[in-house]
From TrEMBL:
It is found in: Cytoplasm, Cytosol. Residues 1-20 are annotated as: Disordered. Residues 57-226 form the Exocyst complex component EXOC6/Sec15 N-terminal domain. This is Exocyst complex component. Keywords: Cytoplasm, Exocytosis, Transport. The keyword RNA-binding does not apply. The keyword Transport applies. Residues 411-757 form the Exocyst complex subunit EXOC6/Sec15 C-terminal domain. Component of the exocyst complex involved in the docking of exocytic vesicles with fusion sites on the plasma membrane during regulated or polarized secretion. Involved in polarized cell growth and organ morphogenesis. During cytokinesis, involved in cell plate initiation, cell plate maturation and formation of new primary cell wall.
Length: 794
């Protein structure tokens, strides 16, 4: 080795310059290595005029990096050489893998070729299957459509238009949108409106033919109805005479009574025959109406029908000037009568084709025209016989149409010209007969030994409560007064109807009803009131009179129905014009008398309440003596009264009696008889109330649930008072909400009076000295609070 040469120490100036250059070199090298901006160095170098130093340093830096680059390239090249060697070693393996994959691919294709062929066949078969299914569904749909079309054509050919429309509606709603065949769909869309139009034209033509035909039918129908009314008037006269004869001999002969009943049956057969003769064919009208409903043209058809019928009515209401009215009046009135008989049938069976207001409008129009014609014709007529002939025929027209519910008051104003004092005389005779019948009454239930007596006294006035004939001898719930008075009233009705109908009065039912109301409300009611006020003195008598009044209530229904039947008025019109029960005054008087007598009887038992020990510490287990006596009497009364009194009358009477018992007990508790009360006495009264409640429960078979609840309200004041006194917090009475809910029937003055008597003396001012250290009973404290609050209120 060579020893290093000794360095020369530079001089001071040279050393300083070299250190500066080395510093710049280090800074430039550091900037180049760090990739910093060399701009400042370049500007400094050129600024000093020495760029050689910078270039020298750059070249040195480049040479130093070239060696590093060379070393890096050598390292990377060696890795590349190694990788190439590795690839060359894998080349043979790749070739063998390639040949193996080629063989596998060949085998796979040879094996999968048949499967691919089968898969293609399967896909094709599935496509064909779907197409076939779609075709089958389309064909099935088309077949169902064609079946409906074929069925609709058959119905059209056979004239079953409604069924044809149903088929068309089914096609349109269920099949038209689902039809895939455009040709078939277009055909259906075109034909459906045409079919509906065809059906509408056909039924409209049938309706037009029916409107022409019904005018002839109406005229014949009106003539038939008026003819039957005339025959009925003659039969009515004959029947009335026979019934009078049978009535006179009914007390002596069974044969005559049966004869009269047979005449009634003959009359019933006549009435049924009259109804059967009114049959006429409305099928074309209802068919057209039904078809138009199916076509959603209901309102238009109603308007069309009403307009046509109104035009027909106006045409029928015109009087020909070429023919004397005396000769044409029967055809004129028969045409109008038949018109409204048809309209009544259409109203009742047409399902809303024409409304009652429209029929009434047509009837008012017809009545106005008829009144104008009658006024005009009557003003021209100079022969009384002619006027009477037309008047009689118009009265028959009124009788015929009244059966169908048409009012003829306007025609009555033209026709009615006579009323006299006939009914006043008839009322006077009936008054004398009723006074004699009531004077002969013995207030005993009527005994009927034979069937004819039952038929004469019960069935003939429809007084029976059951259609089953009773066993004989039969004891009726009424006395002899009822059938005797019924015979008098029925005779009055028949005489009144006979007079009015003989006079040819059109609407004489109002007159008969008016005087029938007077007979019942003035004559019979006043006679019964006089009987009750002067002759009834015992409970049995009062009970019999009350039972008679209940039977009279059913009899009055018969009277009005009988008067309506004889007057030719439909029963529904008679029921519509019914008023309240005409014997209400005497009925109320009978019930009040019975209640008053029962209250007097109860008061006799209630005197035993004075024997009650109100300060006792023992609770009577079976109730107090007075209440047991009252219950025994009430049970005996009910068992007897329910045999003759209706449940509603018995309920009203018992409710009054129970209310009276409640008032007596409450009055006793509040009165001067009771000075002080114990809780045991209050509980004893509670037992008494329970006995009354048990008694009302026993009445449930006779009353409805609602009536049973109403029965308990008769003693609700007593029950609420006892509940309040037995409660643990009596001061709740002053709570408005609780009072309204549980004690709404109590008067605070009565509550205060009874509470003061119930308060324990030990709780008083002087009684508290000995118990000042003990605690007061909470209930007594609540009771004291209640008493104090009630005193403040008073």
């Amino acid at each position: 080795m060579h020893s290093p040469k000794p360095r020369r120490k530079p001089g001071p100036t040279t050393a300083g310059a070299d250190s500066g250059e080395k510093l710049d070199e280090l800074l430039i090298s550091s900037a180049i290595c760090n990739g910093e901006d060399l701009g400042p160095f370049v500007r400094k170098t050129f600024g000093t005029g020495k760029p050689e130093t910078l270039l020298h340093h750059l070249k040195l830096f480049a040479r130093s990096k070239e060696s590093e680059i060379e070393e890096v390239c050598k390292a990377h090249y060696q890795d590349f050489i190694n990788a190439v060697d590795d690839l060359k070693s894998l080349l043979s393996d790749v070739e063998s893998l390639k040949s193996s994959l080629s063989d596998s691919n060949s085998k796979l294709q040879s094996i999968a070729a048949p499967l691919l062929s089968s898969l293609d066949s399967l896909v094709e078969a599935q496509t064909v299957s779907r197409n076939v299914d779609l075709a089958i569904r389309a064909l099935t749909h088309c077949v169902r459509v064609m079946e409906l079309v074929s069925r609709a054509n058959q119905h059209l050919q056979s004239g079953s238009f409604y069924l044809a429309l149903k088929c068309v509606d089914s096609i349109e709603s269920d099949f038209l949108e689902k039809t895939q065949s455009s040709t078939l769909k277009r055909m259906l869309e075109k034909r459906i409106p045409q079919i509906r139009g065809y059906v509408e034209r056909k039924v409209s033509k049938e309706l037009g033919d029916w409107l022409v035909e019904i005018r002839v039918v109406s005229r014949n129908l009106g003539q038939l109805a008026i003819g039957e009314a005339s025959a009925a008037r003659q039969r009515e006269e004959e029947l009335r005479m026979k019934q009078k004869e049978a009535e006179e001999q009914s007390r002596l002969s069974l044969r005559d009574c049966v004869y009269a009943l047979k005449e009634e049956e003959d009359d019933d057969e006549y009435e049924s025959g009259l109804e059967g003769s009114d049959a006429f064919d409305l099928t074309p009208l209802y068919r057209a109406y039904h078809i138009h409903q199916s076509l959603s043209l209901e309102d238009r058809f109603k308007r069309y029908y009403f307009d046509n019928r109104e035009l027909q009515l106006k045409s029928d209401s015109q009087v020909s000037s070429m023919t004397p009215f005396l000769e044409s009046h029967q055809t004129f009135f028969a045409q109008i009568a038949g018109f409204f008989i048809v309209e009544d049938r259409v109203l009742r069976t047409g399902g809303g084709l024409i409304s009652r207001q429209e029929v009434e409008f047509l009837w008012d129009l017809a009545v106005g025209n008829m009144c104008a014609v009658l006024e005009d014709q009557f003003s021209r007529m100079q022969t009384a016989n002619h006027l009477l002939l037309i008047k009689d025929y118009v009265s028959l027209l009124g009788v015929s149409l009244r059966r169908y519910g048409y009012t003829v008051d306007a025609l009555l104003e033209v026709l009615s010209k006579h009323r006299d004092k006939y009914h006043e005389l008839l009322l006077s005779d009936c008054r004398k007969q009723m006074i004699e019948a009531l004077a002969a009454d013995k207030f005993e239930q009527m005994l009927m030994k034979k069937e004819y007596e039952y038929s004469m006294n019960v069935l003939s006035f429809q007084l029976q409560t059951s259609d089953i004939a009773p066993a004989f001898p039969y004891i009726a719930p009424f006395s002899t007064t009822v059938p005797d008075c019924c015979r008098i009233v029925r005779s009055f009705i028949e005489d009144s109807v006979s007079f009015m109908s003989h006079g040819g009065q059109l609407d004489f039912y109002d007159v008969v009803k008016k005087y029938l109301d007077r007979l019942l409300g003035e004559v019979l009611d006043e006679a019964l009131l006089k009987l009750i006020n002067t002759s009834v003195h015992g409970v049995s008598q009062a009970m019999q009179v009350a039972a008679n009044m209940s039977v009279f209530e059913r009899a009055c229904d018969f009277f009005f129905r009988h008067a309506a039947q004889l007057s030719g008025v439909p029963l529904r019109m008679a029921e519509r014009g019914r008023r309240h029960f005409p014997l209400t005054k005497s009925q109320n008087a009978a019930e009040d008398t019975l209640s008053g007598l029962l209250k007097k009887k109860i008061d006799g038992f209630m005197t035993l309440i004075e024997n009650v020990n109100w300060t006792s510490d023992d609770v009577p287990q079976g109730g107090n003596e007075y209440m047991n006596e009252v219950i025994i009497y009430l049970e005996t009364l009910v068992s007897t009264a329910q045999q003759i009194l209706p449940a509603k009358v018995l309920k009203r009477v018992l409710r009054d009696v129970l209310a009276h018992i409640s008032e007596r007990i409450v009055g006793t508790l509040c009165g001067d008889i009771v000075k002080r009360l114990s809780m045991a006495a209050i509980k004893g009264v509670d037992v008494d109330i329970q006995l009354l409640e048990s008694f009302t429960e026993q009445l449930k078979p006779l009353l409805t649930d609602r009536e049973a609840k109403e029965m308990k309200t008769a003693f609700v004041e007593m029950r609420q008072l006892i509940n309040l006194l037995l409660s643990s917090h009596p001061e709740n009475f002053v709570n408005p909400v609780i009072r309204e809910r549980s004690y709404n029937a109590l008067d605070y003055r009565k509550v205060a009076a009874v509470s003061e008597k119930l308060r324990d003396p030990s709780d008083s001012i002087f009684g508290t000295f000995g118990t000042r250290g003990s605690r007061q009973n909470p209930k007594n404290k609540s009771l004291d609070t209640l008493i104090k609050r009630l005193k403040d209120v008073s």
